[in-house]
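Example for tutorial group B:
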């Protein structure tokens, strides 16, 4: 198939993906602004935010990944016109995600009592623990919001979560400014103000989503199908069989980066602050890729439900083209402006110099990072989630962490060595995920004849 023949697929994919991209980037934009504001409080505060975030993100990402299991199931049911089945999945996911969020909150809060045993500087730990505990509470409302979000995306509506996310993020940024610096009569909370602002914003998100669902006919009609008798162990099991491997795969990747952050902390607060800057910038571009990936899951699941396997494959490959183009541009920008971008976060010359070095490696892994996440989105669209979780484990735990440790501490490459390990793991993951979808989609087309 020639590139010009993909143009209709680019258009349809972007129509779904762009709102998701804005929603995903909006989430990270708040973290971006958080880090800028916290960074201006001092290097220790920025390092503490990095440490707290690297622990917290593991629980949050697992919960988000678990909720992602709803989208391909709803998408397939929607593609077949089975609206009652879609509503039943939504009803059960609300309860399941709520229970998962409570369990995660208890587990993550318990981890705060062990943060002083992770080899970080004492000053960093002291600042990080109260900041972290407030963030942990925000898991419950955030995952409830994701129940609504993933259902809406499953039926092809990606705009509502975008609008709510953008609006709430504006509120979050304003609250950051007021509470971190104590402006206009608000208390001066320092870096704690950032986590309080995040908690308030995340409590507001599911409330706003519920209001929209009750007001809009295309959402409200699904509530009419809700029945107490429809709460089902079988449906929960279906959601868990898809959601748990997705959550597992996502937490494996994040865990590798989190453990990399902990290793970075062994070098001191300057490398940890530099790592946070480079990681925040890389996460911004990754969220664009994640938006394309989510759109790919929706498009692939709809085509799968309608048994249009060729169109399903073309939709996925259109997303591959888009993410490779975007991440190539991102890689060039990271390398060209590596000495300028860190200055947005800090004036510390040591932090800026090291962050610039890390951005060179980040530039190299942009393409592989984008390809692996969109390939995963395509695999999720066909509900292929268990094997990718094992491949993720091999990529990020068996390959990434040992190479990071060897390069950083044995071969004496220092902080840059940790990021070389990230690059190696992403290269392997991107290759295996892409090849798996390529082979699977070809087999579906072949069997359809």
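The residue assignment follows.
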């Amino acid at each position: 198939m020639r590139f010009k023949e993909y143009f209709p697929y680019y258009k349809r994919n972007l129509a779904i993906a762009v709102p998701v991209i804005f929603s995903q980037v909006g989430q990270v934009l708040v973290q971006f602004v958080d880090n800028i504001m916290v960074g201006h409080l001092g290097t220790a505060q920025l390092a503490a935010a990095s440490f707290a975030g690297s622990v917290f993100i593991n629980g949050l990402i697992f919960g988000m990944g678990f909720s992602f299991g709803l989208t391909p199931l709803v998408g397939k049911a929607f593609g077949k016109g089975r609206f009652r089945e879609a509503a039943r999945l939504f009803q059960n996911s609300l309860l399941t995600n709520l229970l998962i969020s409570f369990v995660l909150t208890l587990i993550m809060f318990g981890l705060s009592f062990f943060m002083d045993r992770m080899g970080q500087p004492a000053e960093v730990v002291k600042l990080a623990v109260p900041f972290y505990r407030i963030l942990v509470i925000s898991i419950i409302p955030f995952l409830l919001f994701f129940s609504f979000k993933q259902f809406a995306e499953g039926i092809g509506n990606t705009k509502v979560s975008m609008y709510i996310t953008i609006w709430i993020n504006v509120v979050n940024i304003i609250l950051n400014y007021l509470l971190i610096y104590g402006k206009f009569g608000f208390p001066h909370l320092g870096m704690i103000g950032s986590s309080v602002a995040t908690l308030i914003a995340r409590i507001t998100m599911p409330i706003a989503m519920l209001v929209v669902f009750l007001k809009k006919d295309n959402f409200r009609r699904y509530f009419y199908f809700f029945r107490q008798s429809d709460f089902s162990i079988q449906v929960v099991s279906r959601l868990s069989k898809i959601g748990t491997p997705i959550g597992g795969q996502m937490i494996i990747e994040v865990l590798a980066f989190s453990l990399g952050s902990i290793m970075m902390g062994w070098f001191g607060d300057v490398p940890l602050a530099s790592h946070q800057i480079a990681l925040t910038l890389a996460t911004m571009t990754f969220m664009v890729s994640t938006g394309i990936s989510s759109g790919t899951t929706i498009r692939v699941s709809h085509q799968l439900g309608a048994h249009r396997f060729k169109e399903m494959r073309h939709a996925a490959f259109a997303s591959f083209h888009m993410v490779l183009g975007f991440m190539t541009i991102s890689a060039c920008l990271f390398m060209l402006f590596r000495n300028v971008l860190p200055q947005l976060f800090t004036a510390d010359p040591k932090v800026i110099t090291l962050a610039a070095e890390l951005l060179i490696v980040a530039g190299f892994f942009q393409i592989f990072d984008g390809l692996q996440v969109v390939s995963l989105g395509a695999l999720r669209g066909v509900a292929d989630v268990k094997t990718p979780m094992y491949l993720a484990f091999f990529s990020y735990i068996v390959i990434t962490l040992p190479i990071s440790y060897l390069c950083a501490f044995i071969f004496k490459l220092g902080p840059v060595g940790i990021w070389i390990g990230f690059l190696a793991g992403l290269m392997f993951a991107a290759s295996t995920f892409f090849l798996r979808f390529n082979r699977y989609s070809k087999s579906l087309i072949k069997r359809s004849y």
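The chain has a mean pLDDT of 86. Compare this with the pattern of hydrophobic and polar residues in the output above.
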